[in-house]
Amino acid sequence: MEVHLWRGSPEQRALRDQSRPTGQFAYFDIQLGHPNWEGKSVLDYGGNRGNLLLNPDCVIRHEQYYCMDVLQEAIDEGRERFPKARWVHYNRYNCSFNPEGIEGLPVPDLGIRFDFILAFSVFTHTTREELYDLVGQLRSRLAPGGTLAFTFIDPHFRSWPETHAANNLQWRLERFRETNRSLDVDVLLVRSLGAAWCALVDGRQIFVNSSGAWENEAQTCMTYDVFYTAKFLQREFPDAEILPPVKGQMQHCCILRSSALPDA
Ligand SMILES: C[S@@+](CC[C@H](N)C(=O)[O-])C[C@H]1O[C@@H](n2cnc3c(N)ncnc32)[C@H](O)[C@@H]1O
After folding, report:
1. How many whole angstroms from its chain centre is CA 174?
2. 125 lines ligand 1 (CB under 6 A)
3. Rounded CA gap, 163 and 67, in Å?
4. Which is deepest, 129, 169, 193, 210, by most CB within 10 Å?
């Protein structure tokens, strides 16, 4: 999902709706080894309008599903669609999704600890500094025995080797080239060779091992994509379990478990 589609014309919004994947629940269910979701509280962090619940196999009870997102409009739509679920607007700054938000605003305390905190394709759009800050805060919101799982995209990984020779970064750049014919994908790819992580600003500027910069005064950019290699994230989160993509997705999964033991 692209932010310009969210903010765009009715036609663009219709296009966005068509392209939204609904496999997030099945993805986490597999990555987490088919856990027992029954009676478990779930925070869908950066959950947009609750796409996780759209999966036909989703067994999370709406009453125990919390969605927190920086996009007010998404939260409003989600609440309308799934009124029994809990919807929280988190007015934190994000350069493309919520440029009017408050920088560094702490994650609101919802008064409960979660059995699962899931974040699909969220830290693919925040700076590395924010990744550390937010993962640290979210970990502290886990119930004893709880699990935090978030996805990330490895720039050098080939997600669909049978059908696409391109790695994830190349695939993404090629999508951007569809609307920006002058984009020199090869030059950007050469620049990214060997990067442990990189940021792509507005689909055309690449920053290697750096969160990058966007120069306008409003501190806004239309699209902001961050890529981490699996090796890099494993080094940054040594106690994490890092798993390759499943279900035809391009996203790896980073799983962090609460250090505290579940209540007896
Ligand atoms: C690519 S969308 C993914 C949405 C949803 N997880 C899904 O899979 O359909 C990224 C979402 O992350 C949200 N987001 C970005 N920065 C955030 C932050 N710091 N905290 C919470 N949500 C954030 C955006 O508003 C957007 O809804």
Report:
1. 20
2. yes
3. 35
4. 169
Distance CA 228, CA 200 (A): 12
31-44: average pLDDT = 97
Q: Residue 220's pLDDT is what? A: 77
String of DSSP letters for 211-236:
-----STT---S-EEEEE-HHHHHHH
pLDDT band for position 264 (50/70/90)?
very low
257 and 251 Cβ atoms separated by less than 8 Å = no
Q: Which one of 70, 75, 82, 122 would you pick to mutate in the ligand 1 pocket, going by the greatest count of ligand atoms within 8 A of its CB?
A: 122
Terminal alpha carbon distance of the chain: 42
Residue whose entry in the numeric block shows the structure tokens 């903010």 = 7
Identify the residue with better confidence: 217 or 116.
116
Mean pLDDT of 167-173: 96
**Mean confidence (pLDDT) of the chain:** 90
Look at the block and give the residue holding tokens 């999704």. 97
47 lines ligand 1 (CB under 6 A): yes
CA dihedral 150, 171, 19, 33 (to 10 degrees): -30
| Residue 51 in contact with ligand 1 by CB distance below 6 A | yes
Instruction: List, for residues 10-29, the tens digit of each pLDDT value.
Output: 554 554 444 456 799 999 99
- Whole-angstrom Cα distance, residue 251 to residue 120? 8
Q: How far is residue 147 from each of residues 191, 216, 256, 261, measured CA to CA in Å? A: 36, 38, 6, 11
- Alpha carbons 120 and 67: distance in angstroms, whole number: 12
